[in-house]
């Protein structure tokens, strides 16, 4: 690695650092005690995002995980079953939280691209009988992280949502990267949000804020969510300093997600020319790279990349994930392609055993 070149960190879009302008917004934030409802900057953020999503109310929360977990808590009762995609964040990456926090069973459904279909719901529902748990909630993830930042098509989400509502099943949308779905398709946030009872969105991913997510929904649901957040220790005091960063991110880093998507496509195009690797064409900012050649060992590949100043995440035994974001430019993408080419060349030069 050339020590004068900075590391290109594509492990996640959560690794960004606040820009000087964002730090200024943080420094200048007008704050108050938000547990008393006194922080004007938090109120402004909640009002703006509720309006953007076409919902009555919003609640600022410390993390996407807490937002998802509070939503499940507010939309279910203990003993209920929750329909979700097997590799959704709520099912796969939240430590069994829906069981631990809400007393719910998960009903996972494997899909090819991350989106549940109305038929999945129909197949999962059982006759209303005293022996069985009731499915009262379906969760959608958009964009879908595990499946490579795939966008759930709006008409498919609408079909699922209509089928759920017809059966009295509520819908939560994990929209940690809904911003990316919106920029990639031109579909406004409020159109996606209309398909769900609650929507969680993160500021700490592509939008580049250091901390913060938000849950939107009906006033009564968000009122209940506020109580759960407090019980779980998520009531925050002069948190306008974070809300200011999120407002700055909304104003300055939303439209530019198109740059991340363009760079993800450029990265994929570069990787597509490297023998031994297979790349999944990205829809947004997540690029999945399959180690096709048998000599491409995941650990060795990660080590080789790190030695060249490039960081990506392991995703499954023969897959790597690279996520573009605010802190990576075109030159960085070029360096990642070069590093992958060098590592693939080096490892595949050794005859496979
Ligand atoms: C789809 C999705 N949902 C929820 C989360 C949780 O967000 P947080 O890390 O803020 O808890 C993540 C985090 O990566 C995510 O990718």
From TrEMBL:
The keyword Lyase applies. The modification N6-(pyridoxal phosphate)lysine is found at residue 205. Its cofactor is pyridoxal 5'-phosphate. It holds the Pfam family Beta_elim_lyase. One of its GO terms (biological process) is glycine biosynthetic process. It comes from the Bacteria. Belongs to the threonine aldolase family. This is Aminotransferase class I/II-fold pyridoxal phosphate-dependent enzyme. It comes from Eiseniibacteriota bacterium.
